[in-house]
Amino acid sequence: PGVQLLHQGLHNGGGSFEAMRIVYETIHKTPRSFLFTTKLPRQGGLDIFHNETGNCIDVADRGVYIMRSLGIPGTMDMVLKNPGYNSRHFWNSFSCYGDLRYEFELYEVYPIACGNNAGPKRKKGIVYRQFFAPQPDSPRNLFPDKELPRLLDDPFIVDVTDEYFPGYRLDITIDPGQQSDDVLYLCVHDGVGGSHVGVTAMENGKAS
Q1: How far is CA 59 from CA 80, 131, 206, in A?
Q2: Residues 149-190: pLDDT tens digits?
Q3: What does the pLDDT look like over 117-131, one tens digit per residue?
Q4: How far apart are CA 9 and CA 2, in angstroms?
Q5: Beta strands in the chain, from DSSP E residues, in sequence order
Q6: Distance between CA 200 and CA 203 in Å, rounded?
Q7: What is the pTM of this model?
Q8: Burial of 52 (0-12, 13-18, 19+ CB in 10 A)
Q9: Is residue 2's pLDDT more than 50?
């Protein structure tokens, strides 16, 4: 019955949004244990389906497996330092009706348009999308000659912050005489140490 409902959702005018609404409402009813650190090795889609445990990465992985199996171009979005939890955080998004994009978190956040004020009250931060092939706009490919911090040294992630916080922009200006490199890193400090969450080009003491 569940498969039949999904096919109806996909082919009767509802498209990917209706299919993911059905998926969310079905899975939302199943029990699950949330673990901040998964002790067991992650074994892929079947393991995640058979074991209702895991952290936000495992849950987002599950969302990707479901969407891809239905032919929905879904991905995983993330922040490298979640302001609310002092750690990385992952969730899912998918495209629907052309350029419109929806986000959701299985068990937590119902599918809703990215950047919608009625959606999850995310604190502002740089949002990245995890792709399945190297991207020309990834930090790794934008700055090929730089030795980037570990979390930014990834050819598969792209900054999609504008989809979540439209028009939000931080302009930084320093004395050009103090500029020692042609890139600027954005770091978040938590009282113990700092985490690099963004990198951008800098010229004549200006960056954004």
Answers
A1: 17, 17, 39
A2: 988 999 999 999 988 888 777 788 888 777 778 888 888 887
A3: 655 677 788 999 999
A4: 11
A5: 33-34, 53-54, 74-82, 87-95, 101-105, 109-113, 127-130, 157-159, 172-173, 183-189, 194-201, 206-207
A6: 10
A7: 0.82
A8: middle
A9: no
CA atoms of 97 and 15, how far apart (whole Å): 8
Say which amino acid occupies 43.
Answer: Q
Residue 83 neighbours by CB distance under 10 Å: 13
In this prediction, residue 116 carries a pLDDT of: 65
Contact 23, 6 (CB under 8 A): yes
The tokens describing 194, both together, are: 């700092």
156 burial level (CB within 10 Å; 0-12, 13-18, 19+): middle
Q: Are 207 and 200 in contact (CB under 8 A)?
A: yes
